[in-house]
Amino acid sequence: MRIGKNTNxxxxxxxxxxxxxxxxxxxxxxxxxxxxxxYGWLFRFVFDADGEDPxxxxxxxxxKSLDAPEFIVFGLQKDxxxxxxxxxxxxxxxxxxxxxxxxxxxxxxxxxxxSRKAIRxxxxxxxxxxxxxxxxxxxxxxxxxxxQLVWPGAxxxxxxxxxxxxxxxxxxxxxxxxxxx
Length: 181
What we know:
The protein is an alpha+beta fold. The protein is built from seven helices and six strands, in the order ααββαβαββααβα.
């Protein structure tokens, strides 16, 4: 659209409103909005450069695109966590809705994962900050619901809450389903 002498007041107000709305977002926020608009969700990968905390990935946009909870997964390779969350998105897109303790197939070859409702007090300030931002920017109050995908150890097939589970499997997956870790 060209702006010139013949641009009416209504069009000018619309142009100013559009320009103002774009200015209120940072580059990162505009990237989140456009990616969620285009693909339905965004994979956010977080790593600790010092290696003290496990890497993790989480979804941003499940709440907006699917009216479903966001998901987080810890301790695996970036591409694998991205794949897992993408598969959760597709399963929920087909109508599946998570519950605490639900088993998920087709996320990890040869293993089932379990979704646990994340309830830790620092969940939205320490882990899922971009998902929380999108939730509030979309006009919602409170905080978005989040589930943690928990995977079993490859050797024993045990989950972190099961007796005999390997220490590294436990350490790589903070217990966001517990109030205190």
